[in-house]
Amino acid sequence: MNLVVVESPAKAKTINKYLGSGYKVLASFGHVRDLPAKDGSVLPDQDFEMLWEVDAASAKRVKDIADAVKTSDAVYLATDPDREGEAISWHVLDLLKKKKVIGAKPVKRVVFNAITKKAVLDAMAHPRDIDEPLVDAYLARRALDYLVGFNLSPVLWRKLPGARSAGRVQSVALRLVCDRESEIERFVSEEYWNISALLKTPRGDVFEARLASADGKRLAARAIGDGDRAGRLKDLLEGASYVVDSVEAKPTKRNPSPPFTTSTLQQAASSKLGFSASRTMQVAQKLYEGIDLGGETVGLITYMRTDGVQMAGEAIDAARRAIGHQFGERYVPEKPRFYATKAKNAQEAHEAIRPTDFTRTPEQMRRFLDGDMLKLYDLVWKRGIASQMASAELERTTVEITAKNGGETAGLRATGSVIRFDGFIAAYTDQKEDGDAPDEDDEDGRLPEINARESLGKEKVNATQHFTEPPPRYSEASLIKKMEELGIGRPSTYAATLATLRDREYVVIDKRKLIPEPKGRLVTAFLESFFTRYVEYDFTASLEEKLDQISAGDLNWKDVLREFWTNFFAQIEDTKELRVTNVLDALNEILAPLVFPKREDGSDPRICQVCGTGKLSLKLGKYGAFVGCSNYPDCNFTRQLSSDGNDAEAAASNEPQSLGRDPMTGEEITLRSGRFGPYVQRGDGKEAKRSSLPKGWTPATIDHEKAVALLSLPRDIGQHPETGKMISSGLGRYGPFLLHDGKYANLESIEDVFSVGLNRAVAVLADKAAGGGKGRGRTAAAALKELGNHPEGGAVTVRDGRYGPYVNWGKVNATLPKGKDPQAITLEEAIPLLAERAGKVSTKPAKAAPKAKAKAAAADGEADAAPAARRKAAAKPAGAKATAAKTAGAKAKPAAKAKKKDAS
């Protein structure tokens, strides 16, 4: 009997079928150990010794693996084919050696890029040893991220209250978003005019031509900068005669793009499907690990964490055969296509993302896949097959026209293109994807028949005014593209990095655009001022290059750590002498457009408009930064920071804005701004009714109707049919809620507070009472599947929670293992999970959580760890969580030991 260790239980089941009865396949469930989320887990003074920890769940799995090793003839480590997968195999082997169960048994590493029978059997036939340089690169990355998180984040907490954390890659990604916002704020719009003429051929066909030259000079883009010149040129064309100088038709070709890499898949899924980066990776993981195709579980796509753009030779041959069958032989190019990546620091260690079998068309897979899986598979299949198809053949026509008016002349140009052969476009076209400029060919329409030297009639002349626009904010897709171009991060980190920025409330996503929150801009400004080197794009990219050199065996990983730590530690020590006034002076200067937006009357935006003599400046308080007057306490003016200059300006006046009168009391309702944000108020004095604006509502959107609705809360919905007691809805510290008989349940949105009816309210309260929710206001997740009754009584169900699917029995919730399909789990599999979870609900006194902030730093030290850390935090005893919630500083999310590899 041979033992095979993989990461995912879903893979274990499939691979066991492929290998047969001579093999036993066990899952490690991702990482089996990690650095404890506390200071001192990496010891620079002891040659960067790393102190690893195995949690209880992982210890049980390692024991199962060790027991299986004792009765095995050989051990095959078959974790994922990347740096993280290599590290998991190394961790497993190291633990097995410490348990002294390996002995003289052969231990081999096998990797496969797709979960198909052929790929797995080929890998088993060609084993190798663990790649030590690849493991060294993992250790270096893990240590670097840990050291940055645990040393830089505390500096932020001391010098910039309200900041959550900093990370090696996270902070640089945040800087990109903030720098783009600064570009937008500094942008000065410029006027320009476009002039065109609608012309008619002798055959009666009308087409448009644009002004291309005037006054004997070719016009550059946006060359006509004022209305006077535009008017003069329009007058010239109005009275001109038009003659065609030349008609030139040129054949052109468009070649297909290469198959997907991790980043290009995330970009395309964002622009075409509206998927976030994390959602894309979740769905891709399922397609990679395997789908049940009528009794046989098969991986539908190759490994989805890659920056390689090549396909294996057999895959190229299969794609060419499928092209001939699906589209015809004309669509098969004479020679196969080969691609080279353009991404900086690309390792190209693996294939591009492609279907494992091109004969499995999206239409054939429709009945086996849910909506999102089908959409993503369709995208991968089409891009993969298009990459090996013939070029599209187009004909681009350019018509040059002369306009004469007396002694003045001007030149016009009309362009058009026609697709003569669609080629790869028949399968997939990638122009106008998120973050890309539109393809100019797509802007050209088809021109009518036009002949050289013929005269044209004038139908109409148009002169349109335009203004230049600032660069667009980043979307998730365009930010990933920029990070890849700069060489920042790696395919496996992009989604987790973006998730961390959202979780830390450093950015908010509005209409798929990333907008930096004031908190995020403060952190970036602080790091740019006092840790410049560590948020520089080139420095971060060069560090990635060194990590790649380590993985290639060209650098010693501890030499890289020593070089980094010497300078970094010195910088940390220097900040101990940094005074808060130094910090505020730097932030006032860098963030002037945000903190002191220009006023409509042109007055100095730093002069307090309440007292008229004080100077406004950033202040740091318990809950973060705000703007205050230098004449405090004589002048009590304060206002919060706002990413919306209009809101900030409105607040700066400190004048309440009247919204009308309350229809019931007749009191005036006003919109005001306080230290903790905007709010509405009815009446005056200490007894005045007030309500903060809920999340997502801005002062600019508040009208009389909304203000009245907020001030009328709580809202009585109706009497509970069983208790006869009133159910009400309201807005509290933890968001919108329902209240009945002293018990709360959360509502999904503020709109629900005003619209929820009695029947739904009863259902939400019943669901909360069933035990599925945690905390004061969270409602229980709806059951996805009934598994049956527990041996000790009570129903066992599968539910989908905030951090993923889990099984529920009474008050016990157990997270499903990574990769486990919630629809596939059985009662027999669920009971051990519940038993293990129930054993952790200790009756011992709970410890407080004074180190909650330090744990947040650990999570942000390496973005990959964040989702796993949340799973870990969810497994802590309820008592400990309750205690931690009362502890000062416990607002930082518990983050911790990433025991499982992040699926996104």
What is shown here, in short?
Helix content is 36%, strand content 21%. The chain is α+β, with helices and mostly antiparallel strands and 904 residues long.
Question: Which helices and strands occur, and which strands form pairs?
Answer:
Elements: E1 2-6, H1 9-19, E2 23-27, E3 42-43, E4 49-50, H2 56-70, E5 74-77, H3 83-98, E6 107-109, H4 117-125, H5 132-159, H6 170-186, E7 191-200, E8 206-214, E9 217-218, H7 227-238, E10 241-254, H8 262-273, H9 277-289, E11 291-292, E12 297-298, H10 313-326, H11 362-365, H12 371-386, E13 392-405, E14 408-421, E15 455-467, H13 476-486, H14 494-503, E16 507-510, E17 513-516, H15 518-530, H16 537-551, H17 557-574, H18 580-590, H19 592-595, E18 616-621, E19 624-629, E20 638-640, H20 645-652, E21 657-661, E22 668-674, E23 677-682, E24 689-692, H21 704-711, E25 715-719, E26 726-732, E27 735-740, E28 743-746, H22 750-755, H23 758-769, E29 783-789, E30 795-801, E31 804-809, E32 812-815, H24 827-840, H25 852-861, H26 866-874, H27 878-886
Parallel strand pairs: 1-2, 1-5, 5-6
Antiparallel strand pairs: 3-4, 7-8, 7-15, 8-9, 8-14, 10-13, 10-15, 11-12, 13-14, 16-17, 18-19, 19-20, 21-22, 22-23, 23-24, 25-26, 26-27, 27-28, 29-30, 30-31, 31-32
Helix pairs in contact: 3-5, 5-16, 5-17, 5-25, 6-15, 8-12, 8-13, 9-12, 15-18
